[in-house]
Amino acid sequence: MRKLTDAELATLATNPAFTAGSSPTSLWDPDNKLSRSRKISIGIEHDLGNNLTVGLTASYVNYYNLQRFENINLTQTGGTPYNDGYTPGINTWSTATRPGTATIRGRVVNFGKGSVVPGNPVGGFSDVYLVKTDGYGFYRGLSATVKKTWAENLGLLANVTWSKAQDTGSFERGTYTSAGNYSSELGSSLTPDPQDVGSNFGYGDSDHRVVANAVAYFPIVLGIEGSVRALFNTGLPFTAYDARNLNGDGMINKIYAGHVRNDMRQPNYTQFDVRLSRTFQVYKSIRLQGIIDVYNLFNKADFQVPTGNYQVNTPSGAASPAFGQLATVDKNRTREMQIGIKAIW
Question: Which of the chain's termini has less CB crowding within 10 Å, N or C?
Fold first, then answer.
C-alpha cells in the first residue's frame, strides 16, 4: 500500500464520480443558543394514620431553544432566496434548480460551483442545512403515590403518573449526515414545512400518557422474603406519514392529512417482576443476603409498529396495507433471571 502522488490525486479529482454532482453540507446559525428549560413542581404528602401515606405531585416544564434543521438552498415557488427566513406562507419548493445563495444574519453565503466560488466543491452545494435552535416544548405531569405498611417486611408501594409531553422535535443530537425519509436523523430533524418550526409540533417521542407501578413486599417461609412489581404503561407515540413528496422539498417527512405529529400510539405494555431473598447470619454483625430476581416473569412480548409501517399510503398515493401493522418485537424486554449475593455489616 502506498500514498497517491499529487499528480494522481489531481487526475482522480477529474473523475466524473467527483465532479458530476453537488454536495450537501450544514451551517450553524451564529445566533443559536444552548437548549434550556424552566420547571416548576408542587407536591403534597399526607399521613392518614395506620401507616398509610398518600401524596400528589404536579409538574410543568417549558423547553426552549430545541434544535432543528432548515434547508436554506431550496427554490421557493413565488418566493425569494433565504434571508434569515423564506417568504412567509409559501410551502412549495423545488430542488431542480437552486438559488445558490443565502443570507444568514447579514452574511451572504454562496453555494455555487468551485469554478465560480473558489474553495467550493466542483459541483457546488445541493442541500444546505442550517442548524437552528428555535424549537420549543412542554411537559405537564400529575403523579399520585400511596404507601401502606403492615409490618417491617409487609407493605405496598404504588405510583401512577399521568403526563403529556409535546415539542417541535425530539432530536437534539440529530445530524445531517444521514439522508432519506422520516426514519433518518435528517428526516426527523427537518420540519414538514421547511420554514415553519410549528409544523412539526406534536407529542414527544418519549411521551407515555400513563405509567403505573405497584410493588408489594411480604414474608414467605423459612426467612424467605418476596416482592412483586407490576408495571403498566401506555404505548409510545408514532406519526402517520405521507409517502409522497408533497411540497417538492425532496424529503419524505410530511404528516398525513388529518393528523399531527405522533398522534398514533403503539400498544400498551404490562410487565411483572419477582424477587426472592433470604438473609443469613455469618458472624456477629456480618450477614449475607442471597437474591434471585426474575424480570418479565411471564415473558410477555412487547409488539410494536416498525418505522417502515408508519406510512399511510404508497408513493403513488394508494393506501398502504402495512400501515399500523404490528411487525416487530422489542428484544430488550425478554424474560431475564439474575442471581446475586450482598454482604451486610
Answer: N
